[in-house]
Amino acid sequence: MVENRPVLRFIHHLTLIAGVVAVAFPLYVTFIASTHSLESILSVPMPLLPGDQLWANYSQVLTAGSTRGAQAPVGAMMWNSLVMALAIALGKIAISLISAFAIIYFRFPLRNFFFWMIFVTLMLPVEVRIIPTFKVVSDLGMLDSYVGLTLPLIASATATFLFRQFFMTIPDELVEAARIDGAGPLRFFWDVVVPLSKTSMAALFVIQFIYGWNQYLWPLLITTDEKMYTVVIGIKRMIVGGDALTEWNLVMATAMLALIPPALVVILMQKWFVKGLVETEK
Amino acid sequence: MADISLHAVTKRFGDNEVLHPLDVAIGDGEFVVMVGPSGCGKSTLLRIIAGLEEATTGEVRIGGRRVNEVEPKDRNIAMVFQNYALYPHMSVRDNMAYGLKIRKLPSAEIDARVERAAGILELGPYLARKPRELSGGQRQRVAMGRAIVREPAAFLFDEPLSNLDAKLRVQMRLEIQKLHRSLGTTSVFVTHDQVEAMTLADRMLVMNAGTVEQVGAPLTVYDDPASTFVAGFIGSPAMNLVPGRRVGDGVEVGSGLEFPLPEALRSTARAAVTVGVRPEHLVVSSAGSVAGPALAFRVDSVESLGADSLLHGSAAGASFVVRVDGHQAPQPGASLTLSPKPGRVYFFDTPSGRRLAG
Ligand SMILES: Nc1ncnc2c1ncn2[C@@H]1O[C@H](COP(=O)(O)OP(=O)(O)O)[C@@H](O)[C@H]1O
Ligand SMILES: [Mg+2]
User: Fold this and answer.
1) Nearest CA-CA partner of A66 in A273, A257, A254
2) DSSP codes joined into one string, A231-255
3) What tens digit of pLDDT does each residue of A215-267 get?
4) Structurally, what CATH architecture does the domain formed by B238-349 represent?
5) What residues in A contact B78, CB-CB < 8 Å?
6) Model confidence over B217-241: pLDDT tens digits?
């Protein structure tokens, strides 16, 4: 690729541009559709330039919601999604950090057994255990609640495993230096382990926030009350029956809104995220 | 300040006994160096003193108090590690202050101690930096600062200079010496480098495979090695150790080169005796003028070290290394007559490796 052959270069660029268009075009269409009235979207061919209903559509979904299917305001759904994504991301980080700390720094009976138990659950995605989990959550009366929405998704083998791997790279001498300095396990955790894990935590936060935000199947099962809908479920519930009945302009506006928070998290935390993946501060 | 003593201390990892029963006594304010090849158990011994490792049997006392059951933080010791073990996310100041904060010293006292240590170690300009912004030598100084601020009864050093380049190592060696002279704190220093041991120690403990081979002042150990192991380990280049046979009142090595046995050793020497001569104790002399053994030495190769040159070659079929003045080194292929300095030939019992004593 060092040589400079114009034809080859043209082909390379064409391929790349085609790729970008393939990814970006649906997004563009979604945006365009969210700026038109329902009638103009349903006309053939569909318009490909922005319409004049942007403000009307967005303010309607945010404050009032669709008039068909799910009728809760999307603003409230976004709030639910935010609570869920944050609780899952922060909960996963907290639980995994503590579990990994226990597994690496404490000798207790059956330590390896517990580690492997956690590790094995890596192989069980939410969907596999969804019926029993639903049963438990429903018996505990946690349907249509934030706790029911988040708690079953907080346990995370992946994050525990990642933190374990990271802790294993912390030199033993550092632990010993802290022991001589008089730091007990909890002080060592707060003063050394947590600060050293900051970048890993940031990377995990990004991944888990998006994971939480995009949850579909679990909230679909567990929420029946419109007030508890997350935005992803909201989109699904706004789509009713045939094409003509669905307010596609509002669905598209909701979809655009649903995109914003994960995109923001990625953009704002990009620096940390990359650092967490490539750099270890030791 | 305190003395440290170990009584019949052993250490096992599983079935592997890495320390055989050891008795060590370290005086108050003394600088003791434990030296030995890698894997001989030096670090394990030091970690037992620090409390990072438990002795399998035996007793450890610091300042007269039995500390086997005492946590490291309550043993009133400070340790300096080979890889510095600084907290990467803390500034130099916080690294040094951390242990004091945990002990809840008043912050004015902490500041004063940190400033004083920074002054001694010339770390003043770096107090706000993170360890990764420091050079290896500076990091090692911070690690020492962290030890100093605790004002412990004893410093424990585990190969603290091994990660530094040669020049810095010499410089830090001098600084540690200076520090010990000004603070006078009991220090135990572990190293595999016999030069460090020779230069730093008030007394050194030469260790081999989990046992102490010899204890003594550096020059005593150099002048009077107790075994072939010590003779070969202390001194650079190593002592020439040539296996020989007892013949009459002497020991024959190679083909017909005879070293006379001193009177006192004649009764103890058995059939197999190893003869030891240091490279610096073989002197070039003109043939005929030699009293005692004369080595007809043929030079195979010459290593020039500047001030000195090392001649590698053989006499009577046995290999020797000889140290001569750097400017008067002969060419490879030359033949010389060598004689050992009087009283500088050592005799060891070959099977046991112990020095023959009268
Ligand atoms: N935690 C441990 N578990 C098992 N064996 C160990 C452990 N620590 C040290 N050893 C063994 O003990 C011996 C002495 O080790 P060490 O004291 O580190 O030697 P040195 O510091 O003299 O190089 C080595 O053979 C080493 O393999
Ligand atoms: Mg060691």
Assistant:
1) A254
2) HHHHHHHH--SSTTTS-HHHHHHHH
3) 988 998 888 888 888 988 888 888 877 666 788 888 899 999 999 999 999 99
4) Beta Barrel (2.40)
5) 180
6) 999 999 999 999 999 999 889 999 9
Residue of minimum CA distance from atom 5 in ligand 1: B13
Q: B28 is written with which tokens? A: 């108050």
Measured in Å, residue B42 CA sits from the centre of ligand 1 at: 8
Look up the ipTM and state it.
0.84
B266 half-sphere exposure, CB direction, 13 A CA radius:
10
Sorted by where each begins, the domain ranges of chain B are 4-229, 238-349
Q: What is the rounded distance in angstroms from the CA atom of residue A217 to the CA atom of residue A123?
A: 18
How many CB contacts within 8 angstroms connect chain A with chain B? 57
Alpha-carbon distance B207 to nearest alpha carbon in chain A (angstroms): 23
The answer to whether the CB atoms of A182 and B78 lie below 8 A apart is: no
What average pLDDT does the segment B308-334 reach? 89
pTM of the model as a whole: 0.83
Q: What is the DSSP string of A139-150?
A: HTT-TTSHHHHH
CATH homologous superfamily of B4-229: P-loop containing nucleotide triphosphate hydrolases (3.40.50.300)
In chain A, what are the domains? 64-280 (1.10.3720.10)
